[in-house]
Design goal:
The protein has 352 residues and is an alpha/beta fold. The protein has 16 helices and 6 strands. A 6-stranded parallel β-sheet has the order 1-2-3-4-5-6, with helices on one face.
Amino acid sequence: ENLFGEKLAFINCVAEDLKAEHLDIVFPDRIVLEVPRIYGDDAVGIAEVAAALKPLRERGFQLATGPFAAASLYAAWLPFLSFLKADVQSISANVAVALQRKAEGHRNLRLVAERVETPEQFKTYFDAGFHYFQGYYFARPQTISAKVINPAHANVLQLMNLVMRQAELSEIELVLKRDPALSFKLLRYINSSGFGLMSEVTSFRHAAAILGYKKLFRWLALLLATVPGSAASPAIARTAITRARMMELLAKDTLSAEDADNAFVVGIFSMLDVMLGVPMDKALAEITLSEPIVMALKDDAGVFGSYLQLARAVEQRDFDNLDFLSSALGIQGWRVSSVHLAALAWVEQLGI
């Protein structure tokens, strides 16, 4: 529950897992078991799995599989499935149409388009009746160079600039008074279980006294990612904050505490262009940042560049680069996995 909250968790299985005892000790409500294709489309194997799917469905598990299940050989599986997942890089338009027809015949079946990387692919599969979408496109939607930054973002950027130059608290509080909702949201994040303070922070002045300006800057970065009216979806905010937390935890193993805070800021700001809906150069012109942070954001370079590349490799399941980058940083693979899970759980604790 701490890891994925109210969201669904898709878990890859092998056929043997479907009858395994370990499924008896998990709560099925938010678990989706991904059922693999049977080797050689063996009719006996298909029938055996079909027999295992019914009791799992009755216990409350949701079930997913690939586009192969639209074939008549797998007809016995369809009544128990909740999702059909299709890699848009490897299926044709004809397959997409066939999947949509299957979904029409099974009201509980939802279509998931994976590895969506362009606006054209998103439109194609949206028009084809797909219900859910996943892919790099959602972390890099098109930006519009002439777009004006919305006022809520502008207020947070102004606060960050004031904090960066150690402005008087009274000057910072004047900006907060323009938008009381921002102040409320900032205090909610700071007081969340994800931060772990022993006492409740009741005002920005109180927060500055307890945390100091450097810690406040990172929490303002988090606030920027969740401003209402963002050009990006809530999923982008979660991705940016998860990336930031992961970079921070990895940096804590090898860098100073201050650099770990800066790694968090790099993680958030690595999606600043997406959040603001403007090119990165224009986004960075709105705020004063240290040179190491700017180097990482512009060129994946400097002390934080490799951490940013590693976080992206985890998100994209780029295992070759993941192994190379973690080895270069002296971080073991198990640690990367552990930190990723911890970052996901932390974002859930924040209520994002």
